[in-house]
Design brief:
The chain is of the alpha+beta class. The chain contains 44 helices and 14 strands. One of its GO terms (biological process) is regulation of nitrogen utilization.
Length: about 1000
């Protein structure tokens, strides 16, 4: 006997005890009796919840089994409660009131499945308008339920009112599909069911249309992209509600009783799904329900979103552990995303079959295309599909030919064709290395060249969310307008009359999504299936790896076609004139294909590219270029954001690696699209500026200029031009001479002429007025930062105190340069942003900053205690769940004159203050700092020297520095995460079962 059946029988035996306990109560004191009765019911409901939870958490029940058992036990509980309510009220002998009422479960409870903290939805059904006695009986029952603390959703309607509401509101009609009799006059239930299914309004076509529109609006609200790293299990795309939508469409069509499984055996017998597809549907349904149960139990409430703090806990409870380099939470989330994709694939399979049952697709007049028909295809409902007799099983190349025809004609694939592609996607593996297949794939990948694209279709602005693959449309000769026409009442939110939706087929991203969601891409490209659904457990990467790559390819296409020309002008110019277009697109496709393996993904991806590129028809030269780009795709971003690009050795090392201007151009484009595709908030003007400056300097060297032998010449030129401009502005020769002699060579090479002039004004005025401290703020909107310049007496710990003061006003440092002048003064420059990654322009904050820096330098305030009191370091539970192990790395080879210290730790206000204070205490001079954040992880890089101006090479000294910094980071990490981590995590774990059940099988 099945475990859930055993549990159900055991609990029904307990209900006998409940009835006996109720019967034994003393009824002489009504008030005392009521309180005792409520306690009896409360205890029994607690026993129900506890029994389900213990058996579920010990892996004796799956998610679906637990949901069904919960609903069954609640059924019996409510029926006992209704009996008691009627028996112990004045309505006990009022047969008319009882005969006029039928109580039903609706919604999820009506489907016979109930989550731990979900509402219990009830319908009190009457034949006519309820009498006063019937209303009182309903109210009396509800009062008992409310007193028990049970969350009830209820409505009271007559049969006619239900029919009228169902005709007006799809939500009501949907809930009535799941109507299930619980108590009262069952004849009313039978009468309603008969009337409901014989009513003609709304029709099946109306219902399909409304459910599709409802789903689209829900996806927009909860995240249209199913690969967001914090998905909504219930409402998000690929979640439980999408599965329920398929069930509703089937149930509305076949008028069957609630199924024993997720979609019922009817879908197989009617040919909507194969037996294997139905098995995958049940597996997906069960997995999502299991995740939902764990979420509810961990949160202690009806939580439906898999947030960062929930993911490791739920994954651990479900048995996911570390495997190689991949931690358990990443394995769990990959299974989740693969399940979400499976739900979307089921949608593409089931919906066309349902609609085919409702109407017969017809070709449209005026759309005859002899060339299309000769190729084996036809136009149906404005979309392209294969002709009758064409089999993707025996002729898989037709799948790609179909996509090729649709792309050239700017038409979508008919849903029934998508259905067949999904069913036969495994046959695409036979096309690896096929010359025609490779050519078609490259065309789909790259899209038309910029000149063709601009002449072929109008400019297109992409909507704020990625539009889903369009669902089926009813034939134009149908008596119903479908898709919704402009006069449709819900037209404003419909995807089907959105011009952007109609034009999406002109973009390469649309075809890549089709290839990926159908599974064809994973069969064509070796290694691609490994990254489908692959996520990284951090707050920097907000998409799975496959979705990130497709977004990067979409951005590259936009760069070429001028849609991002204002935002990234240099990348646009380079992309539209690229001489290696195919290699660039394939490099973007493959740049992260090795993520999730034990080996460095850049190195392994480069090796995989050597195998994949020839299969795609690329030449030896193109293959070498792709492999090199994949190997070095992080080189420019690492250098621009974590190294001093004013250091000559940094630039020369880059030149030695890149070697050619064409490679530099391709690498720059790849870097831009990679960063922009990570996260909408990652790309900003400051990063754009750093990358552009780095590109220009490397390009200049590759063109034969700016050699290190010209360093002295460049310093002399900078001084001469500055002197001339200062003279024109009326500065005296004495002041000019003094300023020119203050800066060392590194200073003159670090700033442009405009900045030199500004510094001259600051320094000369400060020297004339004997000012011990000068602070100036300069807004640089083109760079997306505010530049803070500080001129004061140099001393140990200066950088640390200034960074602490900046933390107190909520300023985030993105870069810094520290220059000690020949007169012993320090000229420190900080580039800062606010929390929104924009320039710090708040006048009040800048005034407060001046005061705080003054107080910090004079030691009138304790920076550390002020930061602690301000609470700026507080971090929410979601962010604290991300593990950020502190790490300190030294590099003495990247610079000829400095030791580079790279510090990795959790990003928080005050981090830079703590780290720089630890460095200063070791007698180390900081020359420059470069700060980069990746979600909650910060990478701070410092160029340093010892007190004698030399690099630090002694291994014992370096190890001591490392331990001092790590001690600071470890202490701060423990303080930041206290109150949430281990104790909270352990409290959410279930009691370990006697035998551990392995995770569910991951869908292929």
């Amino acid at each position: 006997m099945h475990q859930s059946t055993i549990q159900l029988n055991d609990q029904k035996q307990t209900l006998v005890t409940l009835k006996e306990e109720l019967d034994s109560l003393d009824l002489t004191d009504s008030q005392t009796n009521r309180e005792e009765t409520l306690q009896v019911f409360r205890r029994h409901m607690a026993r129900i919840h506890n029994t389900i939870r213990v058996n579920f958490e010990s892996h004796k029940l799956s998610g679906i089994e637990a949901a069904k058992l919960h609903a069954c036990l609640v059924d019996d509980f409510l029926q006992t409660l209704f009996d008691y309510s009627v028996k112990n009220t004045s309505f006990h002998h009022d047969s008319a009131a009882l005969e006029a009422l039928s109580i039903h479960a609706i919604g999820g409870y009506g489907r016979g499945m109930l989550a731990p903290f979900s509402d219990i939805d009830l319908l009190f059904l009457t034949e006519e308008s309820p009498s006063t006695q019937t209303k009182e009986l309903i109210e009396n029952t509800l009062y008992i339920l409310w007193d028990l603390g049970i969350k009830i959703g209820y409505s009271t309607r007559s049969i006619q009112e239900c029919l009228e509401e169902a005709a007006r509101d799809t939500t009501v009609r949907t809930s009535l599909l799941d109507l299930r009799f619980l108590y009262g006059n069952k004849n009313l239930y039978e009468k309603f069911r008969k009337d409901y299914y014989t009513s003609s309004n709304p029709t099946e076509i109306d219902f399909i249309r409304d459910k599709q529109l409802e789903r689209y609006q829900r996806h927009i609200r909860y995240g249209d992209n199913p690969y967001l790293v914090e998905p909504n299990v219930k409402e998000g795309r690929g979640g439980l509600r999408d599965m329920q939508t398929l069930y509703w469409l089937c149930r509305n069509l076949y008028d069957t009783d609630p199924p024993e499984n997720s979609l019922g055996t009817k879908v197989v017998t009617e040919g909507l799904l194969t037996a294997q597809e139905a098995k995958r549907a049940r597996r997906s349904w069960d997995f999502l329900w299991t995740v939902r149960f764990h979420l509810h139990y961990v949160a202690g409430t009806a939580e439906e979103r898999l947030t960062f703090d929930m993911q490791p806990v739920v994954g651990s409870r479900m048995g996911y552990t570390r495997h190689g380099r991949q931690v358990g939470v990443e394995r769990f989330m990959r299974h989740y995303f693969l399940t979400a994709r499976e739900v979307m694939r089921l949608t593409h399979v089931i919906e066309p079959a349902i609609i085919r049952k409702v109407y017969t697709p017809t070709t449209q007049p005026g759309l005859s295309d002899p060339a299309l028909e000769d190729a084996g295809f036809m136009m149906v409902d404005g979309m392209i599909m294969q002709k009758n007799g064409i089999s993707f099983d025996t002729n898989p190349i037709m799948m790609l030919r179909l996509l090729n025809c649709a792309q050239k004609r700017k038409r979508e694939i008919h849903p029934m064709a998508l259905q067949e592609i999904i069913r036969w996607e495994r046959r695409a593996m036979t096309l690896r290395g096929n010359e025609e297949a490779s050519e078609i794939f490259i065309n789909l990948l790259c899209g038309p060249a910029p000149e063709q694209a601009r002449s072929g279709h109008p400019s297109y602005k992409r909507p704020h969310t990625s539009p889903p693959l369009k669902m089926p449309a009813i034939a134009k000769n149908s008596s119903h307008d479908f898709p919704p026409q402009p006069n449709h009442p819900q037209n404003g939110a419909s995807p089907f009359n959105d011009n952007a939706h109609k034009e999406k087929v002109t973009e390469n991203a649309y075809w890549l999504h089709v290839l990926n969601e159908t599974g064809v891409l994973g069969r064509l490209i070796p290694g691609w299936s490994h990254i489908v659904g692959q996520m990284q457990f951090d707050t920097y990467h907000v998409y799975t790896v496959d979705e990130h790559i497709i977004k990067a390819l979409h951005i590259l296409n936009q760069l070429e076609n001028g849609k991002l020309a204002e935002e990234t002008p240099l990348a646009h110019e380079l992309a539209k004139n690229s001489q290696s277009r195919r290699a660039l697109y394939v490099a973007v496709l493959l740049h992260d294909i090795a993520k999730g393996h034990k080996q460095d993904h850049s190195v392994l991806g480069s090796e995989m590219a050597l195998e994949i590129c020839p299969l795609l028809g690329l030449s030896t030269e193109e293959t070498e270029t792709v492999s090199w780009l994949v190997l070095h795709h992080l080189l420019l971003s690492h250098t621009a954001f974590q190294r001093d690009i004013d250091d000559p050795k940094t630039l020369l090392d880059l030149v030695d690696t890149i070697q050619s201007p064409e490679r530099l151009r391709l690498l720059f484009i790849l870097t831009v699209v990679d960063i922009k595709a990570v996260n909408l908030r990652v790309w900003n003007a400051w990063k754009a500026t750093l990358l552009k400056e780095l590109y220009n300097r490397v390009a200049e060297i590759l063109a034969g200029g700016m050699a290190t032998t010209e360093r002295d010449t460049r310093v002399t030129q900078a001084k001469q031009s500055t002197a001339e401009l200062l003279a024109e502005k009326g500065f005296s020769e004495s002041d000019i001479s003094t300023f020119l002699n203050l800066g060392y060579a590194g200073y003159w090479l670090s700033f442009d002429q405009e900045t030199h002039l500004r510094h001259a004004s600051i320094i000369i005025e400060a020297e004339h007025n004997k000012q011990p401290l000068t602070i100036q703020a300069q807004h640089l909107p083109a760079r997306g930062v505010t530049e803070i310049t500080i001129y004061t007496v140099d001393h140990s710990g200066l950088f640390s105190r200034i960074s602490g003061a900046l933390a107190l006003v909520g300023a985030s440092i993105v870069d810094a340069r520290i220059h000690t002048m020949t007169n012993g003064m320090a000229l420190d420059t900080f580039w800062v942003q606010n929390i929104e990654h924009s320039p710090l322009e708040d006048g009040y904050r800048l005034e407060k900053l001046h005061t705080l820096i003054e107080q910090a330098l004079s030691q009138k305030i304790d920076i550390r205690s002020e930061i602690a009191k301000s609470g700026v370091g507080h971090m929410g539970k979601r962010m604290r769940a991300i593990l950020v192990p502190p790490r300190v790395v030294f590099d003495n080879s990247a610079s000829n004159t400095y030791t580079i210290i790279e510090v990795n730790g959790r990003d928080r206000p005050g981090l830079l203050f703590d780290v720089t204070e630890a460095i200063s205490r070791q007698g180390i001079q900081i020359a420059s700092a470069h700060i980069t954040t990746y979600g909650v992880r910060a990478v701070d890089v410092f160029y340093v020297k010892d007190l004698f101006g030399l690099k630090i090479t002694d291994s014992q000294k370096l190890e001591h520095i490392r331990s001092c910094i790590l001690e600071i980071l470890d202490r701060a990490e423990k303080k930041t995460t206290e109150g949430n981590s281990k104790e909270w995590f352990e409290a959410t774990l279930p009691t370990p079962p006697a035998e551990t059940t392995p995770p569910h099988n991951v869908p292929s």
